[in-house]
Design goal:
The structure is a single chain. With 314 residues, this protein is an alpha/beta fold. The protein has helices at 32-35, 44-57, 75-85, 108-120, 144-160, 175-184, 203-212, 228-240, 263-273, 280-291, 296-301, 305-312, and strands spanning 3-6, 9-12, 19-27, 62-65, 88-90, 92-94, 132-136, 164-167, 192-195, 215-218, 247-249, 254-257. The strands form three sheets. It has a six-stranded parallel β-sheet. Strands 5-4-3-12 form a four-stranded parallel β-sheet, covered by helices on one side. It has a two-stranded antiparallel sheet with strand order 1-2. A hairpin with a 2-residue loop joins strand 1 and strand 2 (9-12). The two termini are 13 Å apart. The structure holds zinc ion.
Length: 314
């Protein structure tokens, strides 16, 4: 029996159910919820909980909250939103792209200890444990600071057994370099998920990643630059090639985010852009896949088999 840490305690991997592998309860910057909650609009916790509740009522069982400290993770807020909504939430340890100057002096081993502690003992003194590790690189190459975090995440994985999600820049194929660095650390690619992989339509590159053993986060919907339809065409091509159980479709959506002065107007725009919220996958993408002729048993396994296999290390 394999288990995963959620913010409300461990659950069996077979109980993960329909899982969105890259979402956010709240996105901002370090300390925003604690120190400047008014920048998030009225009652962010209640609004977040009601968004998660809608997802739960629409048949989503679990989300991975990909929010690191630098993106404004507040673990008690996340846990409360999970409790109020009934949605399982898996929290992340690691770092995104906002590297503080102080990291210039941080060692890989120091950060490894921090990430291991968040998985084994808990986050911010709460006893709430992370269930996944995260590192990030964007366009260009893996910078020296990103590399320190990436190696630390790799070492924390080897000590805890918790798998790794990578924010990656798929149009620049930066995943090749991220993977090579993790392999230098001794990480098996099958414990790694390359996120934002549907920001490219280059099926050849994506197939190469899958052949290394990786999982793919097809986790930007509706997304920008690449149209939702093009993203779904890419997913269909990978399904047709037999990779359905290595795919993790998701939205990279935030229930609440740091917003401008008129937060109600911003929320209205967000709703126009994606009226389905966390249910866009089920409502739009799965419908399109059905129209494209993908079999029902494959569609019903998407967001179930890939996530479960990934956490089980299959
Ligand atoms: Zn994200």
């Amino acid at each position: 029996m394999a288990t995963v840490n959620t913010v409300l305690g461990p659950i069996d991997t077979k109980d993960l159910g329909f899982t969105l592998m890259h979402e956010h309860v709240l996105v901002g910057f370090a300390g925003v919820y604690q120190d400047y909650p008014e920048l998030l609009g009225a009652d962010p916790l209640e609004r977040a909980a009601s968004e998660l509740k809608k997802a739960r009522e629409g048949g989503i069982d679990t989300i991975v909250d990909a929010t690191t400290t630098d993106l404004g993770r507040d673990i008690e807020m996340i846990a409360e939103a999970s409790r109020r909504s009934g949605l399982n939430v898996i929290a992340v340890a690691g770092w995104w792209l906002d590297f503080p100057r102080f990291f210039a002096g941080a060692s890989v081993d120091q950060l490894t200890e921090v990430f291991v502690r968040e998985v084994e003992e808990g986050i911010a003194g709460t006893g709430i444990k992370a269930g996944i590790l995260k590192a990030a690189s964007d366009y260009g190459e893996v910078t020296p600071q990103a590399q320190v975090v990436l190696r630390a995440v790799g070492r924390a994985h080897l000590r805890t057994g918790v798998p790794i999600m990578l924010h990656s820049y798929s149009p620049g194929q930066v995943g090749r370099q991220q993977l090579a660095i993790l392999q230098e650390e001794g990480v098996d690619p099958k414990r790694v998920k390359l996120d934002h992989s549907n920001d490219t339509t280059d099926v050849e590159y994506l197939t190469w990643l899958l052949e290394q053993g990786c999982y793919l986060g097809l986790d930007r919907y509706p997304g920008r630059v690449v149209s939702p339809r093009a993203r779904t065409n890419t997913m269909k091509a990978l399904i047709d090639a037999g990779w359905a159980d290595r795919l993790c479709p998701s939205h990279d959506r935030s229930a609440i985010s740091f917003i401008g002065p008129d937060w109600q107007q911003m929320e209205e725009e967000r709703r126009r852009y994606n009226p389905h919220g966390f249910l866009f996958m089920k409502e739009r993408v799965f419908t399109q896949l059905r129209e494209m002729g993908v079999a029902e048993d494959i569609i019903s396994g998407l967001c179930v088999n890939g996530p479960r296999n990934f956490f089980e290390g299959v």
